[in-house]
Amino acid sequence: MKPSIVLYKKLPADLHKRLEQRFSIVEFDGITEENRPQVLEALQQAEGLLGSGGAINKALLDHAPNLRGVSTISVGYDNFDVKELTRRAIPLMHTPTALTDTVADTVMALVLSTARRVVEVANRVKNGEWNENVGESWFGVDIHHKTLGIVGMGRIGLAVAQRAHFGFDMPILYNARSQHKEAETRFGARKCDLDTLLQESDYVCVILPMSDETFHLIGKEQFAKMKSSAILISAGRGPVIDEQALIAALQNGTIHAAGLDVFEQEPVAKDSPLLKMPNVVALPHVGSATHETRYAMAACAVDNLIAALTGEVKEFCVNPEVLKK
Ligand code: 8YV
Description:
By secondary structure, the chain is of the alpha/beta class. It has helices at about 15-20, 35-45, 60, 80-85, 100-115, 120-125, 155-170, 180-185, 195-200, 220-225, 245-250, 290-310, and strands at about 5, 25, 50, 70, 90-95, 150, 170-175, 190, 205, 230-235, 255-260, 280. It has a 7-stranded parallel sheet, with helices on both faces. A 5-stranded parallel sheet has the order 2-1-3-4-5. Strand 1, helix 1 and strand 2 form a beta-alpha-beta unit. The longest helix is centred in the C-terminal third of the chain and has 19 residues, at about 290-310. The radius of gyration is 22 Å and the shape is elongated. The two termini are about 25 Å apart. The structure holds 2-keto-D-gluconic acid (8YV). 2-keto-D-gluconic acid binds near residues 52, 75, 285, 288 and 297.
């Protein structure tokens, strides 16, 4: 009898087959209010859980007495109650390396498209507004040689620094809990406190996971410290930015513009003032959303679940203290 697993994210056929060979799979399209009763019933027998999103917390885990491994198709895991999983000695696996370059590319796409107003200007051309040589109303601002401040120097922050340094000659400041020698030696990055970064940066790029300490880290007080010409880029988790304060800062001209891939609530509210501002580029959390990278993440997550259920975990475990020595 193959161990049972619950799969709540559609997988490419070859990856699904890799799981089928080892497990009996009960599949769902996400964990929703509608299918929750069926998910909870399937979890009664499940030894493994694989997917992304959804609130994987005590209320759900109380219905999964046989769960021995959880694998998320994501680098972020703020939707998981890690303390509860650890208390139950259940390893949580994630995919921290598969998406680094793709998300860093998305960050640079946000820098470029927000600074040069690419979305707005391209739409004006499509609307037939280009009737003569462009004047100042079409102008953007420069990126090259401007100062980039990176809040959070993790894998993605380092990849952004690489792009900014070699691609755009940008001096780099960073704010992080610890010093990052590689960023300093390879890209000339300079560690500084958050206030200094906010005051000196032309582009403030926030790439932080969501946690109690990062919630609303960037709010009214922080926006007031930024240059009025500065551009905010947010590509980690939405709630790190106080969105109401951001709206006010953009409406008041406290900062110049924003490039956003993540929001406090996702999907972002259809009537959000952010979606009506020409100086805001809003993306639907597509940081890692390329065919290649999403396949690589899913493949990593499948291998992670197999490792967790066969006791072969070597890497990518969020709570390695639960692994049997
Ligand atoms: C996607 C992400 O939201 O990996 C993360 O933490 O935020 C993005 O890659 C996620 O991968 C959805 O599957």
